[in-house]
UniProtKB/TrEMBL annotation:
The lineage of its organism: Bacteria, Bacillati, Actinomycetota, Actinomycetes, Propionibacteriales. Residues 122-162 are annotated as: Disordered. Residues 132-153 have a biased composition (Basic and acidic residues). InterPro entries: DUF6301, TY-Chap_N. It comes from the Bacteria. This is TY-Chap N-terminal domain-containing protein. Residues 3-112 form the TY-Chap N-terminal domain. Pfam families: DUF6301, TY-Chap3. It comes from Nocardioides zeae.
Length: 333
């Protein structure tokens, strides 16, 4: 069981990288009908267990949380929403390991292999873009590597106990309160008024060489700086860290950040409704972004990376200017 426990940890780590357009199949060597597979979408992941394996213990699948196949389909189902917490990912990984080990009779993780790919990105339906914009779309990747599932991958390193104990994240409700406070201002917001809003939140204004800087020491984070962007004398964007910046990336730190991001995103959905989009950077499979566009035109964003979680508010004017800048860039103006 120890090797299966280790594989469960590996699968949890791998599932974090199943983003939009990513497909992952974990199967038995020499038995293509004994498998679990995952299809990533912008808001969920469709997890399935093979329903065509002749010797499968289907009663075991039903007893361990797998949903029966839909009409006209063969596979057992276990869908889940993203971003997911570590507890949710672990529950799915344990369900998958149970299917592989017991329902399909696979004796050891050494008897497993995987295949994965990321499909090419496509333009929204009904939209015509300049060629340059099509060229910037993600071409996809096949095969796609999942290092945590490689048979000879290095054992994960644990962070120093003192560092792990000190990790801090702003509470999700506080994150939403701060973002909502900024997003619902009476736009446009002049530069001086923006600094007044910052002080209303208990943030500090520091002056160095005649330039004002905003600092959020109330959160107790390792990076208290708040980026305030301006254009034409108006505030366009406020960006802040909502977690500590992690020095040494580990599975524990990735779990900490992933849970903080998932909790804040869930609180955001409760406050503003479903997010309008989700993005994954092709060079960082652990990255995630959630955006909400408010009725007043302001846009709220939360971003997860391997080393931190950040959040931002873009003013309605900033959103419009960014759209104009993008159009000019892609049209060559």
């Amino acid at each position: 069981m120890i090797e299966w426990d280790a594989f469960t940890d590996d699968l949890v780590a791998a599932l974090r990288a199943v983003g939009d357009r990513v497909f992952l199949i974990v199967s038995a060597r020499g038995d293509d009908l004994a498998y679990v597979q995952f299809a990533g979408g912008p808001d969920d992941v469709a997890a399935e267990a093979s329903g065509t394996h002749a010797g499968a213990r289907t009663g075991f699948l039903a007893d361990h949380g797998w949903q029966p196949p839909r009409r006209g389909e063969a596979n057992w189902l276990s869908p889940f929403l993203v971003p997911a917490t570590t507890a949710e990912l672990r529950a799915l990984a344990e369900r998958c390991v149970a299917a592989l080990r017991v329902a399909y009779g696979i004796k050891s993780p050494a008897d497993l292999t995987y295949s994965a790919w990321r499909e090419p990105q496509s333009a929204p339906r009904g939209v015509t873009w300049p060629k340059k914009r099509y060229d910037d779309l993600d071409p996809g990747e096949d095969p796609l590597r999942f290092p945590d599932l490689e048979p000879d991958h290095a054992a994960p390193t644990a962070p120093a106990e003192a560092e792990q104990r000190a990790w801090t994240a702003i509470a999700p409700d506080d994150v939403v309160h701060v973002l909502d406070h900024w997003a619902t201002q009476a736009w446009p917001l002049a530069e001086d008024a923006a600094y007044d809003v910052a002080t209303q939140l208990g943030w500090e204004i520091e002056v160095e060489d005649g330039k004002r800087y905003v600092v959020n020491r109330a959160g107790g984070l390792t990076v208290p700086d708040v980026a305030v962007e301006k254009r034409r004398g108006q505030l366009t964007r406020v960006r802040l860290w909502t977690t500590d910046a992690i020095r040494d990336v580990s599975r524990d730190s990735v779990a900490f950040l992933g849970d903080a991001f998932a909790a804040s995103a869930a609180a955001g959905t409760t406050r503003w409704g479903p997010s309008t989009d989700a993005e994954v950077r092709r060079d960082n499979p652990l990255s995630r972004t959630r955006h909400w566009t408010l009725p007043n035109g302001a846009r709220i964003g939360m971003s997860l990376s391997a080393k931190s979680v950040t959040a931002e508010v873009m003013s309605p004017q900033g959103v419009a200017w960014q759209r104009q800048d993008d159009d000019n860039y892609y049209s060559g103006h």
